[in-house]
Design brief:
By secondary structure, the protein is an alpha/beta fold. The chain has 11 helices and 12 strands. The protein has helices at 19-29, 68-86, 99-112, 127-137, 146-151, 194-206, 225-235, 271-278, 311-323, 328-335, 348-360; strands at 6-11, 36-43, 55-59, 92-96, 116-120, 140-143, 181-185, 212-218, 241-245, 258-261, 282-285, 303-305. Strands 3-2-1-4-5-6 form a 6-stranded parallel β-sheet, sandwiched between helices. A 6-stranded parallel β-sheet has the order 9-8-7-10-11-12, sandwiched between helices.
Length: 366
């Protein structure tokens, strides 16, 4: 099936290219797909970096994953902007990623008879809304994990599962200064439960633990300003806790002294877990993550699961990770066997075929 002349627009939106979904979209848009031109839809005030030609900055929504009311209003404005842009495009496929992006792409896609691919990176409380949108626009699904697939009521064996990937390091992490450091990374939003982590860290420290806690994810334009302010106030004056702005290369700061802690819930995947996992870090997570899908020993070695999302349970997991003697070099070498699970390039042919099929369905037969 010919893919020549297919234009794929990854509908993301917003003014900030931050977080796991944005990272996946950026990497996906860089895939070499013969005959396919890929671009990313962002808000009109977004300032692209060196890859400016790969962006379409014509959106209206400044944030794309806010409250239900915010996203509903933003989606209508985004759909109007997207519809206006589509009037001048041909053989386009809308590959939607964010909540606002999915709604806007569904509305604009139906209006302009443009095919829609809904890429699910999250676990909505009301998946029926997205089922309705998919039926409304005649779209198709892509899921970022079996967990997300099941959440939407689909069967993984019969679905398109596209795991995120990362730059798998060619060598173990460098040695650190010798002091243990717990690290969390991700947007400062309630779903990351940073207040639980801070409470657990202080509980563990009060019992004699000696470590630092570094939180990466502060933003000059936060998705949830009130929550970010709450975290900043909770950490103020505590010399053991440092706050850092979000940076796409945050994982480059990891050393063999570090333990990644991720308490996202609900969480469809958790890209930051994979970034630390690939580098040989010990990781503290909640039950039912993508790590459970891996074979032994990758799903067990260096992985510490808190039994529940509360300070006491997380503090226990922190203590277990701190006491672990598993060498980062050995974990890194052992986990390289899992690299094949997380390689979007392996799905390039399937993506190309999917794009071509969707674009062909809209070709004017007259």
């Amino acid at each position: 099936m010919s893919v020549a002349g297919v234009n794929v627009l990854h509908v993301l939106g917003g003014t900030q290219l931050e977080g796991g979904t944005a990272d996946v979209v950026t990497r996906l848009a860089r895939l070499e797909l013969p005959g396919v031109t890929q671009r990313i839809w962002m808000q009109r005030d977004f300032v692209p970096g060196t890859g400016g030609k790969s962006f379409v900055c014509a959106g209206a929504a400044t944030q794309v994953n806010g409250s239900m009311i915010h996203d509903a209003l933003a989606s209508w404005r985004e759909a109007r902007a997207l519809t206006a842009w589509l009037k001048h495009e041909r053989r386009t496929v809308l590959h939607a990623h964010s909540r606002v992006g999915m709604v806007a792409a569904s509305l604009a896609g139906r209006r302009q008879r443009t095919p829609v691919l809904m890429h699910c990176h999250f676990l909505p409380k009301r998946p029926t809304i997205y089922h309705w949108l998919r039926r409304y626009c005649g779209g198709e699904w892509i899921f970022n994990s079996p967990k997300t697939c099941r959440h939407f009521g689909a069967v993984p064996e019969n679905s398109f599962i596209l795991y995120p990937d990362v730059e798998w390091p060619n060598a173990p992490m460098p040695r650190g200064g010798g002091r243990l450091r717990f690290v969390a990374a991700g947007a400062f939003v309630p779903g990351k439960h940073l207040e639980v982590l801070i409470g657990a860290f202080r509980r563990w420290s009060a019992g004699g633990g000696n470590a630092e806690l570094a939180l990466f994810g502060r933003s000059p334009a936060p998705a949830n300003p009130a929550y970010q302010c709450t975290i900043e106030l909770a950490c103020a004056g505590d010399s053991a806790i440092t706050l850092h702005n979000w940076a796409a290369d945050w994982a480059q700061t990891l050393t063999q002294d570090d333990v990644l802690v991720h308490l996202g819930q609900p969480e469809s995947f958790g890209l930051v877990i994979l970034e630390a996992f690939a580098r040989g870090c010990r990781v503290v997570v909640l039950p039912r993550t993508f790590l459970d899908e891996l074979p032994a020993p990758q799903r067990q070695a260096g992985v510490f699961r808190a039994e529940a999302l509360d300070a006491a349970s997380v503090a226990t997991a922190l203590a277990e990770a701190a006491q672990s003697r598993e060498a980062a070099e050995l974990l890194w070498a052992q986990r390289r066997a899992a690299q094949g699970f997380f390689c979007m390039a392996q799905h390039a042919a399937r993506l190309s075929s999917c794009y071509a099929r969707l674009a062909r369905a809209t070709d004017d037969p007259r």
